[in-house]
Amino acid sequence: MTPMKTNAEKGVGLIEVLISLLILSVGMLGVMGLQINAKRSNLEAMQRSIALQLVEDMVGRISMNAYTVAGVDVYLNLGANRLVEVDTSAINAPAKTCGVGVTCSADELAVFDLYQWQLDMAGESVQIGADADDIRAGGLVQPTGCITGPGDGSGFVTITLAWRGSFPMDQPDLVTLPCGVASGLYDNAVGDAAFRQHVTVRTYILGLEP
Question: Which of 23, 41, 130, 183 has the most Cβ atoms closer than 10 angstroms to its Cβ?
């Protein structure tokens, strides 16, 4: 009888170990899931912070240019809705590089500003490594920038930056804020732009009244 009792006790111990391992494994999977979600949330927060900085940068650029020369329309498309949509699929250097010691007209400066904005959206200003193929760490994921206005005599300009987020979201403002919607970069299903994240600033620019 004694050997049988010993074997039974050993069997119970093995089951307890297996149950403990199962509980530990489930707990570790839960912790890993929390870490992944935390990293995604941190990425979203960082992307939103970068987008806000880039929008504010463009507001400053337009303000400085339009303050001295009225009607700087290069920032704006001359079409009916006066929309400029800037992405990073093709970044072409302007004919003239404006800066210290280089005199540019208002139009030339606007072209250069838009070029610099594209570079910043793509993260060209912050790189990991010294080679051209190294990682760009300071930009947005699949960014699109849009500038609209004024067109109605108000002098107000709306600047929007869109990028691809980690989570799909409802997009109730596809008509009022269409920035990047037509590109298909942010779709979950065709045309829904479900992964689009964006920040928008509407401001008055002195000198941009038509």
Answer: 183
The whole-number average pLDDT for the span 50-63 is 91
**pLDDT tens readout for residues 176-198:** 888 888 888 999 988 889 999 99
Contact 118, 90 (CB under 8 A): no
Q: E-strand spans in 17-90?
A: 83-87
Q: Which residues contact 170 (CB under 8 A, 6 or more apart)?
A: 194
Contact 179, 55 (CB under 8 A): no
Confidence category of residue 201, pLDDT binned at 50, 70, 90: very high
Residue 114 to residue 110: CA distance in whole angstroms: 6
pLDDT by residue (tens digit) across 46-56? 899 999 999 99
User: Is residue 209 in a domain?
Assistant: no
In a domain, 210, yes or no: no
